[in-house]
Amino acid sequence: MTTRFLLRLARVIDARPGKIAVAFLLAAVASGGIVTRMPVRTNLLDVLPEGNPTIRAFRGFLEDFGMMDSLVLVVSSRERSPDRLIQAVETIGEELAVSPRVASVDYNLARSGGRFVSEHFPAFLDSGGVARLSKRLSPNGIRRQIRRNREGLLSPLASPLDAEWISGDPLNLREIVRESLLRRTVTKGIDLSTGYYMDADRTVALLMVRPRGSSRDTAFVAGLYREVAGIAAKVSDGSGTDAGIKVGLAGEYASAAEANGVIWRDMVFSFLSSFVLVLVLVTAAYRPPAAVLCAFVLTLFAALSWTLLFAYLLYGGLNIVTSIVAAMLIGLYVDYMIIMYHRFNGEIRAGRSPLQALEATFSETGKGLLSSSATSCVAFFSVVVTSFRGLHELGVVAGFGVLFCLLSTFLVMGSLLSWLAKGSPARIEAGRPGGVPTGWAERLVEGRSGTVVAVFSIFLFLSILGSARTRFDAGIEAIGPVDSKVEQVQRVIEEKFGRKGEPLFLVARADGDRRLAADFDALDLQGERWRRAGRVETFSSPAMLVPPPRFQKESRRLLSDAGLPGRYDGAGLERAIRREMERQGMVPGDGLAAYAAGIVHALAGNGVVDLPGFARSGDPRGTYFFNGSRNAIAAHLAPPGGRWGQGALAAMKEDVRVLGPDFALTGPPLIFEEIRSSIVRESTLATLIAFAANWIIVWFHFRRLRDTALVMLPVTAGSLLTVGAMGAIGLPFNFFNVAGIALAFGFGVDYGIYFMQSRKENPVGGGAEALRRTGGGIILCALTTLASCGSIILSHYRGLASIGAVLCLGAVFCILSTVLLLPSLIDALERPRTREARRVVKETE
Q1: Secondary element (H or E) of residue 209
Q2: Hey, which residues does 73 pair with through a beta bridge?
Q3: Which pLDDT does position 217 carry in this prediction?
Q4: DSSP label at residue 206
Q5: pLDDT of 135-161, one tens digit each?
Q6: For labeling, which of 140, 315, 632, 695 is most exposed (least CB within 10 Å)?
Q7: In contact, 263 and 320? CB cutoff 8 Å
Q8: What 8-state DSSP symbol labels residue 65?
Q9: In terms of Cα–Cα distance, which of 279, 418, 412, 293 is closest to 344?
Q10: What three-state secondary structure class fits 77?
């Protein structure tokens, strides 16, 4: 049935080869035009399992608190004095604040939350702050502060900025509030005494920026980065050579923007390099006419355009993992074309007509292509059992890609070869017979087949032992980018501000404001317990911006006990300050009355300042910790010593469970630890499915158990040798390459099919003879696979590069097993039969 269908297809193509080729190439051009607009999703979350509760919580955290829109500018200076650094930060901050590309910028405590704090400052005071405020608002306290103001203004070190600060806050209440904040909030590694976000050495400062555009909008990102670079250049040029002002970018926004650019560059480079390399290999092996080379290019173009269009229609684009699909499949695609061209060219050289050549190619070699494509599809499709979204999509796209390549090989390549041969057979004749010389392998098989089998057996045994050394790296660094500028800046932040290691996030979601206030208190108390127990290095929460309700109630009680509410009215406090300033020879500002009235009003308040009230103030820092529309709050946790211990994580998860259903602990360390066991289990299952399904397909093709076992031998041995080699050279599995063995079945089993199909068509001679006929073509197929997968090794993402490394190892060991182990084993199995045949011949003679 299959043979009749293939013969009928050959006749249909032979009748109208030109029209068929043009029709399908026009469809490929249309597909190519569509996929040029295909986006690439560079967010790592896009490749993680969707159903995992911890991942859902982390994705919700990122969306609710805008972490993907967080851009951090890191400004550094070589000067020990912070003056030049502050000047640079002010210049950058002021220019970004008026930029149409920036929604908000936070770089100064007074600018970001000064108005809100001044209106509600009593709520921020601890017992020491209340005591100092009581003294400051006494007649003697007012007198002493005004005297200090006068001395400060007369100092030779005074600046216009000092005069502005004193005029706006003549009682210097901000000093009292700041000291209370610093005592209450633990800010290890960060110095807030200047009002800026500086490290302890005051040589590095941070600016937190919220861009208006998405990190995936390449045009917007390019414009924003040019603007930031221009401001940074201006600041650096005006800083003097001694200051050495530098500006770097960090944060999730910068990481996403960098990833978008890197993935695109890697994708284009790996595709072009693998495309060029496989064409060079085909040219070197066959020296085909230019027309045939064009047929290869057009067939490849059709297969790839249809594959990418399928990915676009099914998933809306590519992700980090599927971005390698074009480069990975080029080698496999070319294999089918090589096999078809090799057979068609041989038939034409033997004097067959174009129709006869096409019929022979389709009916005999075509059946082998159908079986090999089926095994490849099944191997790739087996990966869909993994919950890891990136590998799942890679398996689906690659599996259907093989089908599109098969379709393109028969319809486009077959039509073009028939069309060219009808014009003139010389237009398709290769300058060389094709393939790679295999004399070295033939001599080994003929003379030392037993030794070859023994050596492979030893190495297989060692590989099984060595596989125990193959480890799984669950760290995000194992799949992240190499030489990332954003990571380099992030390391500066970690070093200078003590924020080492991957953070965790404690999120609370309530069903109302009252419930949220209770959750706020519970979250803050839990943070204190974790800090005292040494479970966390830092615990940044909304309490850094707004005191928890319990703290505010205690502050109000202390204020009442000190008699501060009602001590002055607005006019009385204004008179006291004005009288003392005039006595010191100072001129009160126009805003003194409003200043005094504001203090009295703030002291008279008796309510609790809630988070929605803080959010209405417009402070850009609030969005990092509070989402009003979701009634959600979050705390950011840094690990002690830069790494989370498994015992500490387990204890923290239990603590969060006790807090109640409103709370969830999430973050990359929990995510990768939770999915590690599942991804290993699922990838093992995918490999077993690939093996079992391939065995069934091969058996249906050859209908003999012995031939089926021989076909599966090279890929099985190659897979074991690959795992053993990974353990020997220290190449670990990770979340990207863990399915590499199952993917290797996609091409590894083809080599055994090609070898045994050739032997089935011409059973004369032993393993060496079969190797002589088909070994060169099989090695060429392996070389094209190495060229395509090898280009992926140059990826700037460690995870993607490791996929290329695993696939290359698999290709090397599968082809060695095919050209050495398989024919040697055949010779060893058939040696008694061969000796008996020779004895019978001698007796007959």
Answers
A1: strand 204-211
A2: 207, 249
A3: 75
A4: E
A5: 999 999 999 998 888 888 887 766 666
A6: 140
A7: yes
A8: T
A9: 418
A10: coil
